[in-house]
Structures are given as C-alpha cells and as structure tokens.
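User: I've been trying to design a sequence by hand for this structure and keep getting stuck. Would you show me what you'd pick, starting by listing the structure so we're on the same page?

Assistant: Good idea, let's start from the same input. This is the structure you sent:
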C-alpha cells in the first residue's frame, strides 16, 4: 500500500509539473506577490491559502490538458 501510494503521488506531481509552470502570483503592476507563510494548528498541519500563477507550458501541453476535459 505505502509503496503504491508513494509512486502514485510522485507520478501525479511529475505529470502536473510537466504540463504547468507554477509560480508566484503577480499584482496589477506585474510584481511578484510574496507568499505569507501560515500553517494550521492541530494534529495534522497544512499550509494556509495563498495565491499563485498556474500556466500551461505551451500549446502542446494546453492541447493535451484540454483532451482530458469532459464535455
């Protein structure tokens, strides 16, 4: 179970990073918006909400992504 989960997460992350450029969000002047690091408290911690920029890496990537969209 654990090995399959680890492989599945790795494959998902690799697939996302191969199709998309993920970076800092931009403000209205084109400047990077810094990420304010916030974390939840409790038994399981996770990062708080933040803005980011997600763009397709190119036309072929966009076409591949659009082929997977349900109509």
């Amino acid at each position: 179970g654990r090995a399959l989960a680890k492989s599945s997460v790795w494959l998902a992350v690799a697939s996302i990073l191969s199709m998309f450029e993920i970076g800092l969000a931009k403000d209205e002047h084109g400047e990077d918006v810094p990420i304010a690091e916030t974390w939840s408290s409790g038994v399981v911690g996770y990062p708080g909400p933040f803005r980011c920029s997600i763009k397709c890496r190119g036309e072929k990537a966009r076409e591949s992504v659009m082929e997977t969209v349900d109509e």
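That's my pick for every position. To get oriented when you compare it with your attempt: The chain has a mean pLDDT of 92. The two ends are 33 Å apart (CA to CA).
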